[in-house]
Each structure stands twice: as C-alpha cells, then as structure tokens.
C-alpha cells in the first residue's frame, strides 16, 4: 500500500486527477470505477478542466459506479446517477452507453445486482477504481462486518452512514436505508485502486486503515491484501498517524 500525503484537499484532488489522466493516456479503452460523495468532487472538477483544456477525452472510457440508493430514480437529485451526471458526465465527452451505475429502481433488484457484476466482467474488469472512505471504514456501501468475499448485492446502510449522508437530504427520514453496492471482492478485482481521504473527520478512519490490521470489522482494511493500492490523503486526514 503506497501512501501519498498532500497538503490539502486541492492537492489530493490534483494527485488523483494526474493518476487518472495518466491511465487515460496509457490505455486505449480504460475502465474506471467511480465513487460519489464529497471526496471526489475536486477530482471530477479537475478532470473536467483537463477535458476543457483538451488534455484528455472520455470517448473511449467506460465507467462503473460503486453504488446507488434503492428507490431513487435517475431523475432524483439525490440519486448517485444524477450526482455523476451533474458532477462529471454531462461536462465531458463520455458516451452515455459507456456509463454504468446500478439501477436502484429496477423491478428485479437481485437480477440487477447479478447483471451489474456480469457487465463488469464482460467489459474486462476495472482498470482503476476510485474509492472514498467512510468514517466507519466502509468502502462503497460495504459496511463493517461485510464478508470480504461479497459481490454486488442489496445492502442495508449502517446508521452511521445514514446520519453522515443526511446532509444531502431534506430530512433524516428521506435518506434511503438500502442500496445496491459493489461487493468487496468485486472492488478487490480492480487492477489498481486509489482511496482518497480529506479532512479531520477522516483522521480516525485513516489511522485505523494504516495500522495494518486486516479485519471485516473495518472493510477498507482489506485493501492491504491488494497489490496496487495508493492512499491519497491530506494532512488533516493523516493527523492521527
Ligand atoms: C460513494 C461511496 C461511499 C463514500 C464514503 C465517503 O459512492 O461508495 O463509500 O465514498 O461514504 O463519502 P464522502 O466522500 O462523502 O465522505
């Protein structure tokens, strides 16, 4: 596990942006795994800027998002599908048919999960997966206690996650309590993984991640078993290490 320390959020975003740009230049048809939440917004802004400067194109890029709330359609501003279009996809030249997110309003959610997993495989797997870190150590919506062999499936969100995400909703009651999430095994099959963390709210989680103890009680700790992981964290997030 490589650790890259940055001064602040802006430099964390820039470092991640440079790694993605490099991947886009090196691979003919890159498959990116993407996250939502506050952490990657600076990264997405940087990618948009580089696209506007004609330094990168998303024409040959395929994306797979980590998760989606159950019950929120693509038109719902709180859905992750809406978020990704708003924060990145609508502002670059990615082809709509190359964008994959789980469908949280699919009629058959079990089938949706199986098909999502299969699509990732059929497209050749994820070349570079971007992750954020939950304060409880979750990656995607794999909450503490999730088996490391888990695959894309329906998950119940931990109360800590519902509370943390309530800031995006009108009230706590509006936060869905279920989601479709890529599994830990699915994430671990990515060829390369970057995990981003910024700010003092992530300091305990980053300290726990870097203490090196691998346990299903702290899902992100599984990343120690992967050969190509970079933690990009700012000084505030690394304050307890
Ligand atoms: C988002 C996701 C989550 C977030 C995590 C951190 O797609 O899967 O695991 O990455 O909850 O969220 P933020 O970045 O809002 O602190």
Shape: globular
Total number of helical segments?
Answer: 7
Task: Indicate the structural class.
Answer: alpha/beta
What small molecules accompany the polymer chains?
A: fructose -6-phosphate
Q: Largest sheet, order of strands side by side?
A: 1-10-9-6-2-3-5
- Mean pLDDT rating: 97
Helical residues, percent? 25-40%
Radius of gyration: 17 Å
Give me the strand/helix succession.
EHEHEEHEHEEHEHEHE
Low-confidence sequence ranges: none
Cα separation of the termini: 15 Å
Strand content: 15-25%
Largest sheet: 7 strands, parallel
Number of strands: 10
Report what the structure shows.
The structure is a single chain. By secondary structure, the protein is of the alpha/beta class. Helices cover 30% and strands 18% of the residues. The chain contains 7 helices and 10 strands. The protein has helices spanning 9-26, 41-52, 80-87, 109-122, 159-165, 184-188, 203-210; strands at 2-6, 31-34, 62-65, 67-69, 99-100, 128-132, 153-156, 178-181, 192-197, 229-234. Helix 2 links the parallel strand 2 (31-34) and strand 3. Helix 1 (9-26) crosses helix 2. Fructose -6-phosphate is lined by residues 35-39, 66-67, 132-134, 138-141. Residues 35-39, 66-67, 132-134, 138-141 line the site of fructose -6-phosphate.
